[in-house]
Amino acid sequence: xxxxxxxxxxxxxxxxxxxxxxxxxxxxxxxxxxxxxxxxxxxxxxxxxxxxxxxxxxxxxxxxxxxxxxxxxxxxxxxxxxxxxxxxxxxxxxxxxxxxxxxxxxxxxxxxxxxxxxxxxxxxxxxxxxxxxxxxxxxxxxxxxxxxxxxxxxxxxxxxxxxxxxxxxxxxxxxxxxxxxxxxxxxxxxxxxxxxxxxxxxxxxxxxxxxxxxxxxxxxxxxxxxxxxxxxxxxxxxxxxxxxxxxxxxxxxxxxxxxxxxxxxxx
Length: 267
What we know:
Elements: H1 13-21, E1 24-27, H2 30-40, E2 45-48, H3 54-66, E3 71-74, H4 87-95, H5 108-114, E4 123-128, H6 133-144, E5 149-154, H7 156-171, E6 175-180, E7 188-193, H8 194-197, E8 209-213, H9 225-233, H10 238-249, H11 253-261
């Protein structure tokens, strides 16, 4: 079931009723769950189910379900399995013939989309981008080519690097909505070009971000093969940069390697 992403008042009455009635709640972090449960006056048994124990915890929860006990699944905030743990449990429950009932509610994805001045009648969701720079850039090349708006999450300490990568890959003028700390006390929504949003440092200081990037237009130029290998070669040896650039673009690995070794600053 979905739980508040910041403002506890956003919990649905249906979620309150269920959390007060079930004997067991599987949760990402028992400490976070206790805050919510105390707020609504619920006292179920808690079972920790997170990224590091999902297989074992899911098996434990299935034992409760097999014994006839109802179990509610929650993550720290928002909807389980949407960039949060829970999929393994849901999959196993379906395999076991156990009824899975979704309880909709708060979600950073739908909150960002609802406030977006960027058209989102069609969009795709990427979740959190890869933390490693090369994998992130590879993902951003694909995102920039999307013909629909793209929603993704980013941590504050990586947002500036992500925006810089978007600029380097040809997305400087693309419209972007940054939703910081949605539903919380310091919620901030800012829209502008990718390059323009790099300037105000106050937007990038703290808080998780839900981002909505405008789709590519037919008139947009995709980042060139050379631009891509240049970005990769700034961080990687020429051979590795050329291999990844060839994988991304389909261009000749040999020509990309020659470009990489010929970059200014290389000896």
